[in-house]
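Problem 12. The chain below contains 458 residues. Write out its predicted structure in token notation.
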Amino acid sequence: MFSGSLSNSRFVSAAALVAVFMISQASPLHAEEEKKGFFSKIFGGKGEEKPPVPAEGKSEPESPEKPQPASSSPKPTTAKSTAKSTPAKSTAKTTTPAKKPETKPAAPKVADKPKEAPNPAAPTPAPKPAEKPAVMTTNVRGEVKPSASNPWHIIDIGGRDYVTLESIRNFYNPLFGFTGFREQGNHIWLMSNKLVIKAQVGSQELLMNNMKFILSFPVVTHGGKALISRLDLVKLVDPILNPSHIQGAEYFDTVVVDAGHGGHDVGARGVYGYEKDFALKMAQHLRTALMARGFKVVLTRSTDAFISLGGRVSIANQIPNSIFISLHLNSGGSTASGIETWALTPQNAAATISRGGGYNMNGTTGNKQDSANIALASAIQARVLSTVKVVDRGIKRAQWSVLTGIKKPGILFEGGFVTNAKECLLIASDNYQRTVAAAIADAVVNYRKALEPAMARR
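Solution.
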């Protein structure tokens, strides 16, 4: 089923949310000078993706016509009722793939957070105008075209439902007022004065207002149309475009801050110190910043003590009206740099990296908070990026042990690479730790603000 589905009434309340979130500043370079629109409140004012200049002799695309709002909640049911998702091969040692529906998660054991991360991918060069889409699909089992009661163009490809980017544009057009839909080679842009979405055929990277998200499945094409998986629409796109309609959102006044590692578990060994020490200092600064903003704070550890991963989850689950933030620092090659924020892998999807728990076939306890998790991750990643000049490694998914068993919204934040001499020197500075902590605290405020309507209904 389509969690977070919209109806006419949702458009009204979502539009009201946009009006509340409008601000006057325009520059994306500083935290105090954010762009207009509710995205700036959630994403923290990250730079805007610029569409390509039309080739000489070609005119601008016409503005899309606004569709009639759906008369009922759009439930992108499978294009063929008998189709089932085709799982990828599991890389987790403790899970065995089996055919399961996309809902009703159970709780398998999963792999822990790795101690190494890949170097950030090099920027994709601009495609040539004559370039053709690289991923064409032929294994189509069924198709459902838009109608008066269903705004979604759904195509079953190999047993997995995909939705056209055109139908995504049309559905969210009343909210964002898209003025352009442009294709250049393998690249596709959906554009409005509030929001620019950029996708690339064959890639799992999706840019929204120039902030990087990693999709569960690559963008594909069929019949000249670009498509993303229905899972990504439900678990990523909709919760971010409509955070006020996240289902099951609960009020919180407490933040459980988890400083990674501790004691004999030193974590990543950095150029200027250990991950466990940097994480604890950042957690202490975050506690101060959150309390200054009116939140209660619980630290899973306040000293250099070892706490098991299960113990951290147990502490968090005992705290009522709370969310969970686990702080870590990264390791990798000497040139690897940047920040990334992790949410739990949705059911029937694979982790972003091979050591991230593999394919999440059966689901976990934490998957009940999928929509809230991705909204919280987006708020934190965006706010930090708008505050400090660091590389955006993206919002990613994995089955880290501290996220799988959590019964509340939770994320894992990687605040930079201690194996990069220049970045580790920055991480070791008290100024950086305080600045990042303040940005995360601001993001928590923005997150709660965005979800207030959903919390009120709850």
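Discussion. The CA atoms of residues 161 and 230 lie 5 Å apart. Students who got a different answer should revisit the alignment rule from Section 12.3.
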